[in-house]
Design brief:
Helix content: 25-40%
Number of strands: 2
Shape: flat
Strand order of the largest sheet: 1-2
Structural class: mainly alpha
Number of helices: 2
Radius of gyration: 14 Å
Length: about 70
């Protein structure tokens, strides 16, 4: 079966999508760490683009100070 992209007719990212990151694709330590900071769902998996966006947002948040 050919994998399809969610940017076409498919709206959910799942195992049929080439961008999907399954919890079994990551080792337990990495999945637990990403889940603990809120960027990965270790039960349902995640779209790799969403995972990258959330991870980068977290990095920016942690390494940026605001002047208030």
């Amino acid at each position: 079966m050919t994998k399809t992209c969610p940017f076409g007719t498919q709206r959910e990212c799942n195992e049929n999508c080439p961008l999907y990151v399954s919890p079994k694709d990551l080792n337990e330590f990495v999945a637990a760490r990403l889940c603990s900071i809120g960027v990965f769902d270790k039960v349902n998996g995640e779209c790799s683009l969403r995972l990258l966006a959330l991870s980068q947002g977290r990095t920016i948040f942690e390494n940026t100070t605001t002047r208030g």
